[in-house]
């Protein structure tokens, strides 16, 4: 029998067993289901990846294997993708990329998978390599533009659609990333050992953390400057938060380890439209040496010579924008105390303390930032820097270094140095000098771009002082005691205020001057060596004592060193350090027993062996001597004994008496004068006799008086230059003055010169003489010769010889004479640069052979002779001189202006030729019986007629001249096109015309101008072609007064009469035939255009114009014009119907026009007509006027049929209009046409007002077929009328009255009132 409790226990066990079985079934079936779902959706994952790949990139994607897993992502489905390969060639960016992934794990929710939503919760990539490289032949601007276009697609922060937005984890392990861009010079190489990041969403906020372990092989933003973080190991575990709504990412402080340096890093990213980033790093124990390794090559090269031994305190802020080309702003603060700094392993600073900052934002205003900011900008500022360099105290305050593209190494610094001179010598790189004892002090302000540290003093201002020291020449131990040195630093050129040397005699030797590029003293191989200009001014100086003082501290063992070697070493040291020039002024200079006084010298060391004597002036025994040249101090190894050689120009001056007894001169006597030696000295300075033996040069006699006994003539010689060479004498310069003539200079070669000086030598010599003179007065010569009357000749035969006898004496020498005179005056004409060959045909005839004249660009050749008669009979004749010359001249036309002394016209360009002949005789300084002829041809010239202020381009001009009558044979002005002009004429008294003279009588001219065909467009083209050679006259208002003056000058210059004839004159489409006119001036101050006749479109026009050219304020003008039988149809056709298309389309236009104008008026200075001055009459006779089918009239006549106006014909319109003070009075004029009958009456004034009335009889309104002309009738018989008034007042103050108004009036009361006021 079973108890109830047993049944209950069995039931409970079964229930638990059932539950366990169900749980096991779920645990087994659920994963199996998930695996089954995943397994059968493997292809879907691949399809999704392929679709995403096709949408977002190009190239090829290969996935080797896909496995499903239910354990790794439970309760989600996991997929493992293996052997993924991707290759792509982007033809737009020219980028080639590859990707290889060994394994990628993707975790996705089962529900998402079933729904086809591929949203991953976890992504893990392991063992992957990515590489990309841009290789392109396109220009860099193309790739830069791609970058700029790409950044325009800014979308803020967005998570990928395939990543779970509620939370996800991304893991990377053993990932290698390499990216190169050879165009934009970029290279990035990273090895991600391990990286894991996960986040969870909280509303619009994403919170997460990350852990990274990365090696940065290259971080090359600009490979031309190297890479950052080369092989640096970076680790860190930052947290982050993302504000999805505002597109912001924030990373709070976390320790970032870079190799053995740890920085506290925080960051903020703004991914909105105002995108940007900001990094803040702090490290209180910054290792400067470690940080240098993180920098790129260009920055490292700047800092490589600097070593800071102890850590620094640093804080860095980096901010910028995510935009191509954006340069980040960097702000850094740094400080240290009690540190040590080494520069180039040479300078070791101790007890270094400084504070400062670094920034790349150096411009204060936005405008400057926009214009100048660049990635190269940097500024390093030191508030203070104090240090010790051995025993030198260094203090630098408020100083900075700044680098920009404009100034790479700009420094502004306040520097103070103070210490011993021995330490200073160590700082200066020199092998030449050293300091013993004393102190120095430097206070300076440095400002400027300094490319090299050794050039720092060239940008400095301030003071340098050095006291109580001895300057030691290292090579030989010479020492110079310096009491003080004071230098004022003035950037490139510093001032040596004083360098004081205490002399043994108790006096001070003080040097002053300037030092250029003083920074050159700091370096052994300076970029710009120091040059100096030193001045020494002393009353007395004993060179021997100075040498002994310099040797005082030399050890005894070196005391006997060769002086020559010591001198050479001293010069070498001074030159290499200072490259000096010296200005020396010494009252008395003593060396051993030799004393020279008044020494003034400028000397320069041009190299370590050569002293240049720019001038070395001194007095010795009352002789003044000047030396200019070089002194060469050869080194001891040269092998030359006592080799101190001089090669110099030497001058010495004294009394001529020293030479008085040297020569037995009988031909002439030297009474007084001074001598001057000017030559060269060459030889060893220590052997004075050698210098004298090698002296060679000029011996010049100055202020010398010579007496010429044969002619009993005194000759004053300003200077006589002789050069002695192998017994011959070269006559360099001999100034000859004869009576009151301008002096001439004689140069030449005298062979066997003693033969002419000594009477006991009978052998003759030979002479070549070149005569030069700056000026010779030919008129004065004629005056002198003609003054030799008979009585004066007899007298002069007793007292002195006549000029022709001097010619005879000169001829005895059988000379060959070359003439070179700068300017020659003859008949007040000056000819320049005369060069000729002259010889004496006999004792009285001077022959000129090939006398050439060169003036500017003109060459002239003159041949002829001058016959100076020598017999008594000839001298008593009225014509003592005969002249016969032929002239040939070729050159530039503008040179004629000076030869002809033209005042009326000036030649500006072109070439000319002149051939002429002149014969004459002289009497009382006047030329008699002269005959002149010539032929002048000028081509391609621009003639500036200055009197008229006109310029005329002339192709060719040919003038024949025969005894003052100039005939114009050819005046060729070539016009383009078919136009041509022919000129002819003549000018009498031609010499008076070209010289502008009109004292005795007036010349006159007659010209004719004939043009078979003349087109004004050809004239314009001709002027345009000549624009480059004509005057450029600025466009200004017309100055009529000036043109009146021009016409007056033309009249006074030419007194012309001009006949003008043009067969056909064309202007645009306007043709005039048979044009004739006469241009002339009268004696009443009028310019007249008379007898002007021309054919004008079937008729003729005759015109006369008179223009007043007196100097009145206004210009009076009178015009009379008469036109007969002008064909209206022909005229309108040629004027293209006045550009009126309707008129052109009219069926017919005809008529005959006759008019007669007689009017007077005045023009103001601007050429504007004074309307109030216009008076006269205009008579009009218009016959047979016809106008058929003119649409504007036909279509705009209300109340009347169009056919009425189709064929308009008019009765003759005859009327005379009066012009009274500028007002045109229109009397009642009847106009009868086939369509309408009317009367016109009124008055008007141009640019002022219009008041015209039309009287239209009412019978016009009757029907009319427009075929018959109305009968002639009177105004009264025409019947009742209505009136149309046209009224306008242009100058009214009321705007409505300024417009033309048309008023219809039924009465004419106002017309009668206007009519009464006109009477």
Automatic annotation (TrEMBL):
The chain crosses the membrane at residues 20-40. It comes from the Bacteria. Keywords: Membrane, Transmembrane, Transmembrane helix. This is AsmA-like protein. It comes from Gelidibacter algens.
């Amino acid at each position: 029998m079973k108890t109830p409790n047993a049944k209950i226990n069995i039931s409970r066990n079964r229930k638990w067993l059932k539950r366990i079985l169900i749980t096991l079934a779920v645990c087994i079936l659920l994963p199996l289901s998930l695996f089954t779902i995943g397994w059968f959706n493997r292809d879907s994952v691949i399809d999704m990846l392929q679709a995403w790949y096709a949408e977002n990139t190009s190239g090829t994607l290969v996935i080797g294997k896909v496995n499903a897993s239910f354990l790794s992502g439970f309760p989600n489905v996991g997929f493992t993708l293996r052997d993924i390969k991707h290759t792509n060639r982007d033809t737009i960016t020219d980028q080639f990329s590859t990707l290889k992934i060994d394994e990628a794990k993707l975790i996705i929710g089962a529900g998402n998978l079933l729904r086809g939503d591929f949203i991953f919760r976890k992504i893990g990539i392991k063992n992957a390599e990515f590489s990309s490289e841009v290789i392109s032949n396109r220009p860099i601007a193309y790739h830069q533009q791609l970058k700029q276009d790409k950044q325009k697609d800014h979308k803020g922060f967005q998570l990928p659609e395939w990543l779970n937005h509620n939370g996800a984890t991304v893991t990377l392990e053993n990932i290698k990333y390499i990216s190169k861009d050879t165009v934009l010079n970029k290279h990035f190489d990273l090895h991600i050992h391990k990286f894991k990041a996960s986040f969870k969403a909280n509303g619009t906020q994403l919170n997460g953390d990350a852990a990274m372990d990365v090696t940065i092989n290259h971080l090359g933003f600009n490979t031309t400057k190297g890479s950052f973080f080369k092989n640096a190991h970076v680790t860190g575990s930052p947290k982050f938060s993302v504000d999805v709504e505002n597109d912001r990412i924030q990373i709070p402080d976390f320790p970032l380890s870079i190799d053995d340096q740890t920085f506290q890093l925080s960051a903020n990213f703004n991914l909105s439209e105002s995108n940007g980033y900001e990094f803040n790093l702090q490290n209180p124990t910054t290792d400067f040496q470690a940080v240098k390794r993180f920098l790129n090559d260009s920055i490292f090269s700047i800092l490589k010579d600097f070593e800071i031994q102890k850590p620094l305190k640093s804080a860095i802020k980096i901010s910028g924008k995510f935009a191509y080309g954006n340069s980040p702003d960097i702000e850094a603060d740094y400080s240290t105390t009690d540190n040590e700094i080494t520069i180039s392993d040479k300078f070791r600073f101790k007890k270094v303390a400084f504070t400062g900052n670094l920034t790349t934002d150096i411009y204060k205003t936005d405008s400057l930032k926009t214009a100048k900011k660049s990635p190269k900008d940097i500024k390093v500022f030191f508030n203070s820097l104090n240090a010790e360099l051995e025993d030198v105290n260094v203090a630098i305050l408020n100083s900075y270094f700044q680098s920009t593209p404009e100034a790479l190494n700009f420094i502004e610094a306040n520097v103070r140095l103070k210490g011993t001179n021995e330490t200073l010598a160590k700082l200066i790189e020199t092998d030449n000098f050293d300091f013993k004892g004393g102190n120095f002090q430097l206070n300076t302000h440095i400002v400027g771009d300094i490319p090299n540290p050794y050039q720092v003093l060239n940008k400095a201002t301030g003071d340098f002082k050095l006291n109580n020291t001895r300057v030691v020449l290292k090579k030989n131990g010479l020492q110079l005691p310096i009491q003080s040195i004071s230098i004022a630093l003035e950037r490139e050129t510093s001032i040596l205020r004083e360098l004081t040397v205490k002399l043994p005699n108790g006096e001070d030797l003080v040097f002053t001057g300037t030092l250029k590029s003083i920074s050159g003293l700091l370096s052994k191989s300076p970029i710009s060596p120091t040059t100096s200009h030193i001045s020494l001014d002393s009353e007395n100086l004993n060179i021997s004592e100075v040498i002994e003082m310099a040797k005082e501290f030399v050890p005894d063992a070196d005391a006997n060193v060769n002086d020559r070697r010591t001198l050479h070493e001293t010069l070498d040291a001074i030159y290499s350090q200072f490259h000096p020039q010296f200005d020396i002024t010494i009252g008395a200079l003593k060396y051993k027993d030799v004393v020279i006084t008044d020494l003034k010298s400028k000397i320069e060391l041009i190299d370590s062996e050569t002293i240049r004597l720019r001038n070395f002036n001194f007095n010795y025994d009352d002789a003044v001597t000047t030396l200019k040249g070089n002194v060469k101090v050869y080194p001891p190894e040269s092998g030359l004994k006592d080799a101190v050689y001089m090669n110099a120009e030497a001058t010495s001056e004294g009394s001529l008496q020293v030479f008085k007894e040297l020569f037995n001169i009988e031909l002439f006597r030297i009474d007084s004068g001074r001598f001057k030696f000017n030559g060269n000295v060459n030889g060893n300075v220590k052997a004075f006799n050698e210098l004298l033996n090698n002296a060679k040069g000029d011996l010049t006699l100055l202020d010398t008086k010579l007496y010429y006994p044969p002619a009993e003539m005194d000759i004053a010689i300003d200077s006589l230059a002789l050069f002695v060479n192998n017994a011959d004498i070269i006559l360099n310069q001999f100034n000859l003055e004869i009576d009151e003539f301008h002096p001439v200079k004689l140069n030449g070669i005298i062979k066997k010169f003693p033969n002419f000086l000594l009477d006991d030598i009978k052998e003759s010599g030979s002479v070549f003489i070149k005569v030069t003179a700056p000026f010779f007065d030919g008129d004065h010569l004629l005056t002198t010769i003609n003054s030799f009357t008979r009585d004066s000749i007899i007298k002069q035969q007793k007292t002195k010889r006549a000029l022709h006898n001097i010619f005879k004496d000169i001829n005895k020498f059988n000379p060959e004479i070359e003439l070179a005179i700068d300017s020659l005056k003859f008949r007040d004409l000056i000819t320049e640069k005369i060069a000729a060959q002259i010889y004496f045909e006999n004792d009285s005839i001077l022959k000129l052979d090939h006398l050439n004249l060169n003036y500017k660009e003109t060459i002239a050749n003159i041949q002829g002779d001058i016959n100076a008669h020598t017999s008594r009979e000839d001298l008593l004749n009225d014509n003592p001189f005969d002249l016969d010359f032929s002239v040939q001249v070729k050159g530039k036309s503008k040179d004629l202006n000076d030869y002809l002394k033209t005042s009326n016209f000036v030649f500006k360009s072109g070439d000319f030729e002149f051939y002429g002949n002149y014969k004459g005789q002289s009497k009382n300084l006047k030329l008699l019986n002269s005959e002149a002829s010539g032929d002048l041809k000028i081509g391609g010239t621009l003639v500036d007629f200055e009197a008229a202020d006109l310029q005329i381009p002339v192709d060719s001009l040919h003038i024949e001249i025969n005894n003052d009558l100039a005939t114009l044979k050819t005046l060729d002005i070539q016009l383009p096109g078919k136009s041509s002009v022919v000129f002819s004429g003549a000018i009498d008294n031609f010499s008076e015309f070209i010289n502008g003279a009109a004292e005795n009588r007036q010349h006159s001219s007659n010209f004719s101008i004939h043009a078979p065909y003349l087109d004004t467009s050809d004239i314009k083209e001709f002027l345009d072609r000549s624009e480059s050679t004509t005057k450029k006259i600025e466009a200004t208002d017309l100055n009529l007064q000036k043109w009146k003056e021009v016409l007056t000058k033309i009249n006074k210059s030419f007194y012309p009469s001009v006949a003008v004839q043009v067969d056909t004159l064309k202007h645009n489409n306007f043709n005039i035939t048979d044009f004739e006119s006469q241009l002339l001036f009268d004696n009443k101050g009028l310019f007249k255009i008379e007898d002007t006749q021309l054919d004008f479109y079937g008729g003729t026009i005759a015109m006369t114009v008179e223009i007043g050219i007196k100097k009145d304020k206004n210009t009076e003008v009178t015009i009379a014009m008469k036109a007969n039988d002008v064909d209206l149809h022909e005229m309108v056709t040629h004027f293209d119907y006045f550009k009126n298309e309707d008129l052109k389309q009219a069926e017919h236009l005809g008529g005959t026009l006759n008019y007669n104008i007689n009017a007077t008026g005045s023009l103001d200075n601007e050429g504007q007509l004074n309307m109030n001055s216009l008076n006269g009459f205009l008579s009009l006779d218009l016959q047979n006027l016809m106008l058929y089918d003119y649409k504007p009239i036909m279509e705009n006549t209300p109340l009347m049929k169009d056919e009425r106006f189709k064929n308009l014909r008019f009765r003759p319109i005859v009327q005379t209009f009066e012009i009274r003070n500028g007002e045109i009075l229109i009397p009642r004029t009847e106009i009868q046409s086939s369509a309408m009958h009317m009367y016109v009456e009124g008055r008007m004034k141009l640019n002022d007002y219009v008041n015209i009335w039309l009287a239209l009889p009412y019978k016009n309104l009757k029907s009319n077929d427009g075929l018959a002309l109305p009968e002639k009738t009177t105004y009264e018989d025409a019947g009742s009328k209505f009136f149309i008034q046209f009224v306008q007042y242009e100058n009214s103050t009321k705007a409505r009255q300024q417009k033309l108004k048309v008023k219809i009036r039924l009465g004419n009361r106002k017309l009668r009132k206007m009519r009464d006021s006109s009477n």
